[in-house]
Amino acid sequence: MASEYLEHKLALLPDRPGCYLMKNLNAKIIYVGKAKNLKNRVRSYFKSSHEGKTAKLVSEIQDFETIITSTDKEAFLLEITLIQKYQPYYNIKLKKGTGYPYIKITNERDPQMLITGQVKKDGGYYFGPYPNVYAAEETLHFLQKVYPLRRCHGHQGRPCLYYHMGQCLGACFKEVPKEKYTIQIQKIKRFLNGNVSTVKKSLLAKMQTAAKNLKFERAAELRDQINYIEQTVEKQKIISNDHTPRDLFNFYVEKGYISIQVFFIRQARLMKREKRIFSCLNTPEEELASFILQFYNRKNNVLPREILVPATLDKEPLSEILQVPLRTPQRGQKRDLMAMAGENAKLTLQEKFRLMELDNRQTVGAQQQIFAALGLPYGHVIEAFDHSHIQGSDAVSAMVSFVDGRPEKSNYRKYKIKNELEDHSGADEAANTREVIYRRYSRLLKEQKSLPDLILMDGGLIELRVVLEVLHDELGIQIPVAGMVKDDHHSTSHLIVGEKGQIVPMERQSQGFYLLQRIQDEVHRFVITYHRKTHNKNALSSQLESIKGVGPKTRTKLLRHYSSVKRIKEAPVADLMKLGISETVAQTIKLSLSTTPIRKIGS
């Protein structure tokens, strides 16, 4: 239900086309949409019941703003601009580039063919996209043999190797007439547009002539070229009677998700397929329209001559924006292909659901098992801690966060222990635990941030008791705590709880136990990585302290800029002087470090 503030804003919405921007508690834009009627569309979020991700979106909306446009077409264009600018969490977002390879004929006096992933408005001819680089390379190599242009770097006063091989028209040593290039380019275009019968007949005739003249190597080469046409260009079934480059879009919607299939039809064949699955927060047609505009707004994407879409899509504004006709096939092979794309979209989404169900068992389901084993109601957030040190020195701690069974790396934290033992006579695990737990949760309380649902401490009974004491007696908060105990092989063994360290039984083959292992391994990896960096930095600082003339300011400069003895050793004296270090001191540093062995961790 909308708040009083939102109700007031809803009453002021205009009956006009435009875009709306949904904001969360922090005024961050989390969703951008467009509508023919802003009043009806925006009100529908708060006046209708929703489920899945749409319900989650609505629950986070604390404010919104609208931008009125003159037409629905302008609203489409503005929506794409706003999505690209703000990258809202709930919007469909596509990568900036397609990553597809194209064959290009360059726009030069002596043109050449090459493979590129960069499509530019440079007057060149682009053919594709191809399924992968290998397919594009094979096609390019074939064309260079059958319809050569230029393969050398240009005029060099003598014929190049490719000219002798029949794969270059000779721009290397003579002026090739433009008409000759034009004829070759027309043949290449016809071939890449699917008209292969002419070249196939020509190659067959040449092969027979070569065999008749006992030129068997040449005949074998021509035979291989014919085989290439049959195995690649003609391998796929003809799906159209014309050679118009076209793209086809269809979708399937279920359980709040939309599955979109894109078919690339080139050379009258299905050349490539692309599939995407997103949360469906609006009508499927609006989600598809937004997807299509973003799809063609990416870099390195060549528009086809025609786009095929479902009949329910509003084609007119999209056609005006893209300057390409959008049609719905009514009969024949293209209609069958549209149905096939829809069926593929359905199968892809159902497969996604099965994988999501499996993933859910390994994440949310596994976390549910951990909470159930501890006799707790399900909680979303688990935070786990571990320490690392070398005989008490360079002591650090680290915390990892798991949300619904998945690592939430943006919530990971590192802690350099402040109250380290001065004589480094050994590690005080209890003191380290006390410090890091107090620092973590006193800060969350001070900043009024949410607390985790469970704390896991890598260690035994001592650490567990300290955590309970800090939480209950010093901070006055009640968060469930358990200790992760390892066996003699340093592998996860079991959980303990309470002042007496009661063992919590868990089935070792269960998903919950596997998740527990992942959490313990992850926090250990994270803290060890942090400790190594800290130890190396301290070791470097210690080595620099012993060098005459190197004071605290110079040490700080060197640590920030180089961070390792090896990098300082490799740096020229002139580079050290650029940091404001005198030549004498720089030379002293280089000499001292070159005679000092690098101390290894743990030595």
Automatic annotation (TrEMBL):
Domain of life of the organism encoding this protein: Bacteria
CDD domains named among the record's database cross-references: GIY-YIG_UvrC_Cho
Residues of the UVR domain: 197-232
Gene Ontology cellular component list: cytoplasm; excinuclease repair complex
UvrC family homology region profile domain mapped to chain residues: 248-471
GO biological process, one term: SOS response
GO molecular function: DNA binding; excinuclease ABC activity
Annotated compartments: Cytoplasm
Keywords: Cytoplasm, DNA damage, DNA excision, DNA repair, Excision nuclease, SOS response
Pfam families: GIY-YIG, HHH_5, UVR, UvrC_RNaseH, UvrC_RNaseH_dom
Domain GIY-YIG: 15-92
Coiled coil: none
Summary of the function given for this chain in its UniProt record: The UvrABC repair system catalyzes the recognition and processing of DNA lesions. UvrC both incises the 5' and 3' sides of the lesion. The N-terminal half is responsible for the 3' incision and the C-terminal half is responsible for the 5' incision.
Subunit composition and interactions: Interacts with UvrB in an incision complex.
Family the entry assigns: Belongs to the UvrC family.
Protein name: UvrABC system protein C
Gene source species: Bombilactobacillus mellifer
